[in-house]
Structure of Hydroxymethylglutaryl-CoA lyase:
Amino acid sequence: MTRLQINEVAPRDGLQIEADFVPTEAKIAFIDALSATGLARIEATSFTSPKAIPNLRDAEEVVRGIRRRPGVDITVLVPNLRGCERALACGVDEINLVMSASDSHGLANLRMTPKQSLERFTEILAATQDDRVFVNASLSTAFGCPFEGEVPESRVIELVERLLERGVQGVTLCDTTGMANPGQVARLCEAVQERWPATPFTLHFHNTRGMGLANALAAWQTGITRFDASLGGLGGCPYAPGATGNVCTEDLVHMFEQMGVETGVDLDALLAVSAGLPELVGHDTPGQVVKAGKADRRYPMPKR
Ligand code: COA
Ligand code: ZN
């Protein structure tokens, strides 16, 4: 069975939507603790406009300040050429280009339609040609848009094709506001893997309607092995109304490990980092296993 690759997105998707700015030193300590838990990849920050995402305005300091561990790729979210240049100057392993599958979310989040994003990506791919950086692209609202509703599967397939023909190496299908259901997920995952069997596809779920883990399981059953997840279930897009947290990393790892699927992650170490989240962000998190304990937790019999 193929080992899973977990991309931890709490430092980016999680911290971007918090009410308070997390101090740079605390972000660096958080990412350093995460990178010691066996995660394959960490999305450390985003190189976006500081006006659009003020919480991540310290992107350079964060990437330059973290300890780089062999085997843990550092990826960052990038919306445009300016963001790409800033990211490359910091020596990241991967850039994760972001665009929407729907026009209205694209305009709300990035002030660009998908067509305009694709035009920008052409320039970005030219700028990365001499660099060894891996170029992934995340397609927001791939399972539904909070403004437009249904996003047809044919449109998603078409955008994936446009991305790959420009030279993007991997694609993340994002359920930005938790609209996906397991049947829909299975259909899209099957369709893209059948058409592009050699392309690494990652699935990015939000648990907004309680379907996050079910969707991840449905994707895995079709052969998907790469998942974005956020420690404690933090996360959400500030420009998507109603967005709430990502599928929770430790709950996802716990589910797969219980099923005998290797994740490469030391769950106890991950839970210890998760237990520190309330202090980092100043509130409780939706993570469940960190509160309930792993399924092998045992209680003493009640006294009669
Ligand atoms: N990094 C830093 N600053 C940037 C930037 C980048 N990647 N891209 C643009 N800017 C700055 C410009 O210098 C300009 O600054 P000024 O007002 O001081 O002159 C300002 O942002 C506006 O630039 P413009 O090119 O007109 O961009 P915009 O206002 O159309 O914004 C984006 C477009 C994509 C930069 C912005 O919408 C954005 O960063 N969105 C990110 C959304 C996001 O991350 N959402 C959550 C993840 S899904
Ligand atoms: Zn997200």
About this structure: The chain has 13 helices and eight strands.
